[in-house]
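queue> holo job accepted (nicotinamide-adenine-dinucleotide)
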Amino acid sequence: MTATHVPGLPVIDDGWLISTNPATGEEAGRVPVADEKAVIAAVERAKEAAVWWQGLGFDGRKTRLLRWRTLIVQRIEELAELVHRESGKPLADGTIEAVAAVEHLDWAARHAKKVLGPRRVRTRILVAEHSGHLEYQPYGVVGVIGPWNYPIVTPVGPISGALAAGNTIVFKPSEYTPVTGQWLADTFAEVVPEHPVLQAVHGLGDVGGALCRAGVNKVAFTGSTATAKKVMAACAENLVPVVLEAGGKDALIVDADADVTAAAEAAVWGAMTNAGQTCIGIERVYAVEGVYDRFVEAVVAKAGKLRTGEEIGPITMPRQLDIIRDHIEDALAKGGRAVLGGAGAVQAPFVSPTVLVDVPEDSSEIREETFGPTLTITKVRDADEAVRKANDTPYGLGGSVFGKKNAIRIARRLRSGMVAVNGTLTFVGMGNLPFGGVGESGFGRIHGEDGLREFARAKAITVRRGPSLLPAMTFERTPAQVQQIVKALRLLYGRKP
Ligand code: NAD
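queue> job finished
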């Protein structure tokens, strides 16, 4: 690498993708870059492997997925160290991220059979002589495209669901964290050496585009909204279904009866963890006037203790530094005030914690995804105004509410896929809860039962149990039989409810 290399920026050299640490510029590892032919070949191999993988059935797959889970647990320090080296993420954050990945893997492995396996459904009147059966069959090969900010848990979520459902995977990790992605594929191959059930292919965005067009049967994308639209357009060419986990601008509401200290602690964690590079990170707070002053004071006191290079790691993607700087400057230029950090907070590759107040709603710091350790706090009259302002964004990923009496009611009114009440980001820690957004944050769900069904097609089967006493779906029926069917219908459903 040359002396002019920007730390953290991926380098492609002679067919290799070289990944570097954003804080030090040191090489974290290198992986081969795939061309279009290689991506197609990987998908072909995955198709063949899918026959074997599906043949194992739910129980066979569960055993193998749980073996992978155990291997990750046994080598969790190694994985956390790798993600720390590659993305700059503090070691403790990398460890907790790996723990969350294990939770999703374990849950998907254990529950796939119950959620997706064959079951009888109740017979209905129109075809009473037939039994109904439902099962969920795998798509075949799922292409998973991942981001760099949580390079373990974001891909492991869809990978776990898709594998448990019986699909095989071709995974394109972010070019900023390819070595972590390769680690996942390699460790899976250690416990499932027979066939290439989980393969990684590497490169820049064009490799992700090639994967969408390589014959996969579904794509699970996690990344920015702008790229999500390109992925959907590429998949539309062959009518390949997609699940899109995109950006966010999540808000936290502090209601009048909130525990202000707990709300401040959670807001600081939600906004600043992973240096704010979190899709479900808290970027805005709306605090009602009765608690506003105390809340701002508590947030500043807590966030002021965080140290860059310790709890606050570097910004992983160098060009994000300009976006964070622009947002802070725009907020200040439009009349906002920094009560912590502010102008000068961006000192590449770090950004020191920044808390902004009085920021107008039309500033980029309020409207666009900042993806840095910044937080705006806005005073509102009441929870209604808070909800209105929180919802006034094209995004709708997660969110948080602090309060007692009305907290759950407020949570329901937030236009988002997930909300934590008296906590932040907590919904991602539960393998049995679905995860995904609305609007520009994407659609479809990973994790939980919905996340398993996302990677399988519903298959409906009816089976004749006996002769038709009142045949409805045949030309052989008589007018009298049709009348009898109507009579039966009236008996069943003819009375006012
Ligand atoms: P990104 O959109 O730049 O890249 C994501 C992935 O898409 C990378 O692997 C990239 O190589 C690939 N890609 C780029 N162009 C492509 C194309 N034309 N076709 C196919 N693939 C292409 O996103 P990022 O910067 O890596 O990640 C940060 C973003 O991800 C943020 O917006 C964040 O909010 C979002 N995110 C969302 C979730 C979620 O679950 N909703 C989770 C984590 C991150």
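queue> Residues 145-150, 154, 172, 174-175, 204-205, 208-209, 212, 222-224, 227, 230-231, 234, 245-248, 279, 317, 369, 397, 437, 442 surround nicotinamide-adenine-dinucleotide (CB under 6 Å).
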